[in-house]
Structures are given as structure tokens and as C-alpha cells.
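Materials and Methods. Structural model of 50S ribosomal protein L29. The 76-residue sequence of 50S ribosomal protein L29 from Arenibacter algicola was retrieved and submitted for structure prediction as follows.
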Amino acid sequence: MDLINEALEFEQRKLKSLSTSDRIEISRKAKALILGLNEIYKSKKDDKIMDIMKRLTAIKRKVEKRLKGKHLVTKI
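The predicted structure was written out as C-alpha cells:
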């Protein structure tokens, strides 16, 4: 359950005026949290965990969009 608490705290971080290295760190941390939560989700099938993973994925995409630049991001 520490991973869930860590994910909830991560979600509350401020995302304004970040350096490139901060954005890279946030992206990697989000990915690690999502993968860890996915392992928990596989065994428990709790919808709350899925909701947390979706919110973290949205944060990760937002940060990565800024890293890559708006002109390089394509919609699938």
C-alpha cells in the first residue's frame, strides 16, 4: 500500500516552471509508479488502482509532450 500512497503524493506535485531534467525525472518516476501499480492491479483488480494509473498516465503524457515539443507529437 506504500506504492499507492506514493502515487497519490506524486499526483499532488506542482508541474509549473520545471527544468528539462525535472521533467525527465517526473516522467521516469510516473512510469515506475504506473508499472508498480499495474502489478498490484493484476492481483487485486481494484478499479481505484486503475483510476490512479489513468491519472498518472495523463500527467506523464503532459510532461512528455512538453519534453518532445508540440510539433513532434502526433495523435494516434
